[in-house]
Amino acid sequence: MNITDFISKLEEEFEDLQPNSLSANDVLQEKFTWDSINALIFLAHVNVEYDVEITAEELIKSSTVQDLYDLVESKVQKKG
Amino acid sequence: MAIFQVPNISIAGISACVPEDEYNNNNYDWISEKERATLIKTIGVEKKRHAKKGTTTSDLCYVAANNLLEELKWNRSEIDLLIFVSQSRDYIIPATAGLLQEKLSLPKTCIAFDVSLGCSGYVYGLSVIGSMMATGAIKKGLLLTGDISTLNTSFKDKSAFPLFGDAGTATAVELDANSKAMMFNLQTDGSGYEAIIIPDGGIRNFANKETSFEYHKISEGIYRNRFNIALDGIKVFNFSLREVKPNVIKLLHEYKLATNDIDYFVFHQANKLMNETIRKQLKLDVEKVPYSLKEFGNTSSASIPLTIVTQLAEEVCNKELTFLLSGFGVGLSWGSVILHTNKIVCPPLFIYKS
Questions:
Q1: How many independent structural domains does chain A possess?
Q2: Distance to chain B for A60, nearest Cα, Å
Q3: How close does chain A come to B219, measured CA to CA in Å?
């Protein structure tokens, strides 16, 4: 997986986001409503797309797009 | 592993009943219009039914069962088993099943007891009634499932209030030497008991005048007291996405079946996002996975039969079908069953007027 791909999939997933509007260093809270519902949409998205599970605690620690990517990437690595 | 078959049992009929009062989530003004729109789209619940205070799950199940027995023209004296699956009983004691045995004019030779399960309750209930009847001594039985969840849900809890609806159902089960076996895979993980919980009012935390009734802010848009249902959304979500698919796959493999052998997959109606994610995990066609969420919300152990009654009545009445039913949630408890129906009785939804 790579971050460009990761970001374009996020832009597809969330209605609030326009194509090519997101970059790696963006703070999630500033770009769109990063609330509990969108968190669930994100969990569902990474489950189907990358087959990984992310906990609430892990999600709270992520503040930027890069953080989210690193989190998902590390889980994908662990799965081997 | 709890993977097993129950032979010689078939479903003769399924019915459901909901209260007349409808709640429209578009009127849920506890949250902003924008948040409301996202919420409705994500959970997939537009409308749901709310029971009036004083109406019980057993009242709804009674209407569903009484009408179903009329349609089936069953002799009530032959019904020797009644199982009530619910987490909203009439009284703390006694069990509700006895009240229903009397109200439905079932004989005193009838076994009647409650099973305390929610989302997984219909599948578990079928396994219990099927296993007891497979001994051959009991010819006819009734499985009554459902919940009134709206009464103990806090209006000021956006994570729970828009989700739940009330419903009661009845399934008539009979001994049938020609039937194909029901196949079950049932599981439990009690370590997740707090993921969906009403903390007070039981024996562990007995009702307390000072602490049980007081409302607490849990987070933005979520206020509740200790008699209200508390949902840990992310925990429940992760649990369902982790466990349902392997449970279904294992059951299919065990009996050498493929998803193509199944006409309909009826899942517990948890919420749209969760159910759609599970559907995609299992790579199932949209046409094979019916929903009643939009009009009735999450109705706990009633959700599977309610979906059959409201979405598949015509087919289930006129065709032979193979179903895979799967329930998952509170407990944490989950399970699936593969079963065949052969032109069963399935009357239109009944409306409870109080």
A1: 1
A2: 12
A3: 10
